[in-house]
Amino acid sequence: MTLDTILKQLEHTLAPVRQVMKLPLTIVAAAVGFAPLAVLFSFVLRLSWVAQQNTSVAPFSTGDEAPPF
Q: In sequence order, what DSSP letters do the residues of 23-65 get, joined into one string?
């Protein structure tokens, strides 16, 4: 038995395993690819929420007058 025939038999044996592993690897690759975008989106949402809360709490005052709350 030569090395070539052993490799062909091994490739034939591993073909179903390769087919089964394509979907999980695709899912993992998609998750890893979209993770930075998800983190960026969460930061943008957090910043917009904080900005909205800061602008709606009280209007700008010079410090001479007490805030209305």
A: HHHHHHHHHHHHHHHHHHHHHHHHHHHHHHHHHHH-----SSS
